[in-house]
Request: fold
Amino acid sequence: MFRVTARLSSNAQPLGGWEAPDNELRGHFTGHYLSACALMWAQTGDRAVRDRGVLVTAGLAQCQAAIGSGYVSAFPEELFDRLRAGQPAWAPFYTLHKIMAGLLDTATLSGDQRALDTLLGMAAWVEHWTQPLSATEMALVLEREYGGMNELLYNLGAVTADPRWVQLAQRFEREWLFASLAAQRDELQGLHVNTTIPQVIGAARGFEATGSMRKRKAAEFFWHTVVERRCYCTGGTSNEELWNTPPGVLAQELSGYTQESCVTYNMQKLARHVFCWTKDPQVADYYERAFYNGILGVQHPADGDKLYYLPLASGYWKLFGTPLHDFWCCTGSMAEAFAKLGDSIYFHDDLGVYVNLFVPSELDWAERGMRLRLDTRFPDGDTVTLTVRGAPPTPIAVHVRIPYWTRGCSALLNGDALPVAADAGGYLTVRRRWAPGDVLMVRVPMHLHAAPMPDDSSLQAVMYGPLVLAARLGTAGLDSGNLRAVPTQPRKVPEYAGEPLTVAAISATSADPSNWLERVDTRPLEFRSVGQEKSLTFVPLNRIFDERYAVYFRMTTPPEVTSSGWKRALATG
Reply:
């Protein structure tokens, strides 16, 4: 459709779903794909993946040259004419942002100069399009979803050192939204969630680009109010793509439309900014929670297709897309997410390295000559081993996150016990002159804990460490016609395959879920209910595919569950 729009010949078979020739969002997935190729290349060094992204970039450059104005998209400029006139148009700047962000990633991560040249042509077109608009007219344009145009332009300004793009970025900022957030007011009820979060990520980049503390205050308050008062146990947020309720009111917000996957991806992006500013381990705790419960379980292991919503109402199942149709926004975001699973494992400051995620990996901190290997079976095991492969001759600090959910943490350095001075929700810090072969081993035991709704403690989920556990409810009524969003029924939620199952309430006598849940000895992450009307098997939510499940349960004898550990998040005891 890029070639058709540029009036170039094409005999290719068009894709379906949101990339179909009659869909006004067509072209957005190409941008996500470019980012995914560049990210995968940066993480793995797989040149074939890099070359695929560079090949697509060459095709976009050819289309741009044929159009001649700097514009390039899979839909004509007529959509932007409608946008300027206040007529219906499905988010043309949203799609343009994805394409431009993909080109920037290809330029900066894959080293493709042609991608940067193409991007600069597109940015100049955007500048020309917006230039005649007054502030009032531009504000009306920004009422239509525009992705992260402000973030992208701040990033372009940083790469090119050209203040022209920083000034253009500031035209893509919703002043009324930032004003309320900077004043520490949560006025998010009724807003479209995935329209709002990218704009706030842009505010975060705006702070980093301009030093505006107002933008930082807005971004930090937003992150905290969403994570602490608008998130489910999974770390995800949104219901039917909206915030429908005041902050802290979630008990009635369970459905088949909960937790849009794009939202989780973008909240992680914002968390990364906040952590870089604050080094707050509770931000890392959130990132981990979202990683295990909102990212890892939304790609089907059979064919890599992605999930739009993660249903949290009992009796639903995960409805995945199909290879050549759908191409939802979340298909694109999750393509990026699975291309950068190594993101945010490690951070550094001038004095040391922070180990935030327990993911098998190798770190090469070339600037300091520090090389680490992280070995673990987490979450199937609770031991993390860091082996020094190379080290500078001067002392350096290694900070290992001690999660909010652990207790009884222990550590060994080269086989000798270390005092663990950090509480859960902090960091174990070892500062020394490291030598190749040094081994730091940290054990972070997991335990069961309840995750109640903030406005109704009798409605609870159960977690094991950072993992949300779900009860397996079987496959009744499920078949090939409703496990996937087939082209004849291209729906995003599992709403058309029968009613959700009713799940019996749980009888509990204390706040500790181990009162009614026990480990299955032969399977490290499987649990079985005890003392209940019906026996239920629980496994991590991210390991459930092609079957019904339940996450939240009504407790018939609800104990008072108080917050401990991650106090600024949901009341998780």
Observations:
- The first strand starts at residue 346 and ends at 348.
- The two ends are 52 Å apart (CA to CA).
- The longest helix spans residues 47-67.
- The chain has 15 helices and 18 strands.
